[in-house]
Amino acid sequence: MEDESIIAAEIIDPQTPDPSALEDTDIAENKKKLSSYTVVCVSILIAYLINYFLGKRANETLALSWASKFTLKDVIFEKNFSLLGVGEGEDSPLLLKEATNVFKFYASGRRYCHGLLATLELKSRHDLISMLFNCVVPCKDEISFEVYMNDEGMDHVVFALARKKAAKGMLKEMRDLQRFGGMVGAPGGRKWVAEELAVVSESVAGDMITDVVLDQQPARQWKV
Known about the structure:
Number of helices: 9
Number of domains: 2
Distance between the termini: 101 Å
Number of strands: 8
Radius of gyration: 33 Å
Order of helices and strands: HHHEEEEHEEHHEEHHH
Helix content: 40-55%
Largest sheet: 5 strands, antiparallel
C-alpha cells in the first residue's frame, strides 16, 4: 500500500512540468522573436524608402541649381553657345537625367566646335547603403566637360587645368601629358588662373588662356 501511495503521489506531483504548457511557451517565444525581426525589417525598409526619395530630390535640386546658375543670360554657356539643352525649343529641358545621380548637359552652336557635353556624377544620395559607406570612405560630387572640336578647326593640343595636387598626379598618370605637356607658369605682365590652380599644357597654353577667357566671371568660380 505504501508503494502505491508513493506512485500516486509521483503521478500527481504539481512540480512536474506540463508538456502542453512548455509547447505554448515555445510558441509564444518564437512569435515574439518573429515579431521583433519583422519590426526591424519593416523599419529598415521604411528608412531606405525615405532616404531614396529625399536623396533623389537632393540630387535633382543640385543638378538644376547648377544648370540654372551657368545657363542664365550673359553667363558663360549662353555667351559661348547658341543652343543650350537637349532639345531645340525654348521649353526644352536643360538637363538629361541618365540615372538617379547622373545628369548630362549639352550645348552647341559655336564656330569650330561640334558641341560641349557636361556630365554631373553626384553622390548616390538615394542609396542608403552607399551613404553609409561614404561615411567611411568619403566621395564627392563630380562634373566633367567634354568639348568636341571640328578636326579642321584647330590643331591637336594637350591641355589640362586642375588643382596643383591633382595636376601633379595627372602628369604621372596620363601619357599624353607626360609626353607632350608640362607645368606652365604664369607669364609675366598678364592675367593668369587662380593661385590654387595649375596649367598642364604645351607651349600654346598662353594663347588659349586669354584675358577674354579669364574675364568671364563664372569661370573664376569653377573649382576642379
